């Protein structure tokens, strides 16, 4: 429909492009510096130094000790380790552990919890998020029981970008916990890392998940911050790496890349205000120019780069394809192409109906997004929606 | 694409799971004693595959006799469209169902007692 131009990439919640400074930092560890970080010889020690430098960079970012930073093969692994690892230790107390989470978590959190629940190993509570897409602190307070071993609430949502009141939830958990060990508090901060304060002391979390490829770093690398490692058991077994908690030879290049990427987040945070302005221009432009469009999730408590919008009478995936043909990359709320035909569990949780869930498109901006790109989207989008509404017979 | 104002038959199907809605409108005329689809239009709210599938089945059905059109299978649509990912085949089968419904609707209105729709 539109003439093709260079890709306008507005799918940064799926993955970000690799920062060239990150790539530069990683390159030597693919070839010249190929050593195994566990080897004693000089080549091995060079790799070890690089890994420990990255650990220092992460610790600085999270305001924690270096010994509390664990590198994992992915954020999904981090989430699984946090949940399964905590449950393994808690089960030894002889009581059935209880976990609190919420309905819009990433599958990397929801699925291990559902698995544990289904196999009768734990009790689980899935808190609602209401129309705004935000967990209520008093709901957490009410759900905590004497056998609650873990609360897992994401810092910001991947689809609608809503920000959860992590520090307030931590306070409630802390009040209940007192001098005891449980409940522990885990947060998946994968989407939040670019935009929010991840100071673990301020947040009051015991476990925190990070990912490399959402912060202009490489794919296939994650972090789990663990405040007290004795409350966690490994979920895979092997060598002594990462204090035996995550065995397997360290992915040195990726670890170096993640360290560099996290160091760079600080400078990109300075640009968050202008990013938010661009994002607001996109949201306001769409809501104003295209009738029957709706923003999904809270407008205020929302990541600066996220716009998730439903276009009534149009299926998100059809719009995605037209946008793609015009060189604009976005993603949808419908998981249609992933095999399941169900609408996104996140949008369905907002209680705004199936149709609105199926008609949602997520635009997620990056530090590299420029105003010209947003202008282009605002220029071509109305015609595409009009076209698809003609096909669907939807009258505005 | 679009609507026929005074259609002879309308098929309206939807997949509750994926949310797709398809409508097919028919005009039927007699040609050498046979009932032929002389005009066909559609409205689809769905993904690209759903839109393409309804578009294609309309193209395949235009000019065919009703008996021929009834025999158009979702696999014919998928074949014509080229590489359909397996999880999208249901879009084509929804289009097949919409066309058959439109034909049954026509036959029902034009009093053909033998033409009760088959339950699948």
From TrEMBL, chain A:
PROSITE patterns reported for this sequence: AA_TRANSFER_CLASS_5
Every Aminotransferase class V domain range: 8-377
UniProt keyword list: Iron, Iron-sulfur, Metal-binding, Pyridoxal phosphate, Transferase
Pfam families found in the cross-reference section: Aminotran_5
Reactions mediated catalytically: (sulfur carrier)-H + L-cysteine = (sulfur carrier)-SH + L-alanine
Protein origin, superkingdom: Bacteria
InterPro entries referenced in this protein's UniProt entry, alphabetically: Aminotrans_V_dom (IPR000192), Aminotrans_V_PyrdxlP_BS (IPR020578), Cysteine_dSase (IPR016454), PyrdxlP-dep_Trfase (IPR015424), PyrdxlP-dep_Trfase_major (IPR015421), PyrdxlP-dep_Trfase_small (IPR015422)
Annotated GO MF terms: cysteine desulfurase activity; iron-sulfur cluster binding; metal ion binding
UniProt-listed Enzyme Commission number(s): 2.8.1.7
Keyword DNA-binding appears in the UniProt entry: no
The protein's enzyme class: transferase
Cofactor needs: pyridoxal 5'-phosphate
Family: Belongs to the class-V pyridoxal-phosphate-dependent aminotransferase family. NifS/IscS subfamily.
PANTHER family, sorted: CYSTEINE DESULFURASE (PTHR11601:SF34), CYSTEINE DESULFURYLASE FAMILY MEMBER (PTHR11601)
Protein name per the record: cysteine desulfurase
Organism for this UniProt entry: bacterium (Candidatus Gribaldobacteria) CG10_big_fil_rev_8_21_14_0_10_37_21
């Amino acid at each position: 429909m539109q003439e093709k131009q260079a890709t306008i990439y507005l799918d940064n919640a799926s993955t970000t492009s690799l920062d060239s400074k990150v790539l530069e930092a990683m390159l030597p560890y693919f070839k010249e510096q190929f050593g195994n970080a566990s080897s004693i010889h000089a080549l091995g020690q060079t790799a070890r130094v690089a890994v420990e430098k990255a650990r220092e960079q992460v610790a600085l970012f999270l305001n924690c000790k270096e010994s509390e930073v664990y590198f994992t093969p992915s954020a999904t692994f981090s989430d699984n380790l946090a949940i399964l690892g905590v449950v393994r230790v808690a089960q030894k107390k002889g009581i059935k552990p209880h976990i609190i989470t919420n309905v819009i978590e990433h599958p990397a959190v929801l699925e291990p919890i559902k698995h544990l629940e289904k196999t009768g190993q734990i009790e689980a509570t899935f808190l609602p998020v209401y129309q705004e897409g935000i967990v209520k602190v008093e709901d957490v307070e009410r759900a905590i029981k004497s056998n609650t071993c873990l609360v897992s609430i994401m810092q910001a949502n991947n689809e609608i970008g809503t920000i959860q009141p992590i520090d307030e939830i931590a306070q409630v958990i802390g009040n209940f916990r007192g001098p005891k060990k449980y409940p522990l508090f885990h947060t998946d901060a994968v989407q939040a890392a670019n935009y929010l304060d991840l100071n673990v002391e301020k947040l009051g979390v015991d476990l925190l998940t990070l990912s490399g490829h959402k912060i202009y770093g490489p794919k296939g690398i994650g972090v789990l911050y663990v405040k007290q490692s004795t409350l966690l058991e490994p979920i895979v077994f092997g060598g002594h790496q990462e204090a035996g908690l995550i065995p397997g030879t360290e992915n040195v290049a990726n670890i170096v890349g993640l360290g560099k990427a996290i160091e760079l987040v600080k400078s990109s945070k300075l640009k968050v205000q202008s990013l938010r302005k661009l994002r607001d221009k996109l949201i306001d432009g769409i809501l104003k120019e295209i009738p029957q469009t709706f923003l999904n999730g809270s407008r205020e408590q929302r990541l600066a780069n996220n716009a998730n919008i439903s276009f009534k009478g149009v299926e998100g995936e059809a719009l995605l394809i037209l946008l793609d043909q015009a060189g604009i990359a976005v993603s949808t709320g419908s998981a249609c192409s992933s095999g399941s035909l169900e609408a996104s569990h996140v949008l369905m949780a907002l209680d705004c109906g199936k149709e609105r869930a199926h008609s949602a498109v997520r635009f997620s901006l990056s530090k590299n997004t420029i105003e010209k790109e947003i202008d282009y989207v605002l220029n071509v989008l109305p015609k595409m929606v009009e076209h698809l509404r003609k096909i669907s017979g939807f009258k505005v | 694409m679009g609507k026929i104002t005074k259609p002879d038959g309308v098929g309206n199907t939807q997949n509750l799971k994926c949310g797709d809605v398809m409508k097919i409108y028919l005009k039927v005329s007699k040609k050498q004693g046979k009932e032929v689809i002389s005009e066909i239009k559609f409205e689809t709210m769905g993904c690209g595959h759903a839109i393409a599938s309804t578009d294609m089945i309309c193209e395949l059905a235009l000019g065919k006799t009703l008996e021929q059109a009834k025999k158009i299978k979702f696999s014919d649509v998928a074949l014509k469209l080229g590489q359909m990912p397996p999880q999208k085949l249901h879009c084509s089968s929804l289009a097949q169902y919409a066309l058959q419904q439109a034909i049954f609707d026509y036959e029902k209105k034009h009093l053909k007692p033998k033409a009760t729709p088959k339950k699948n």
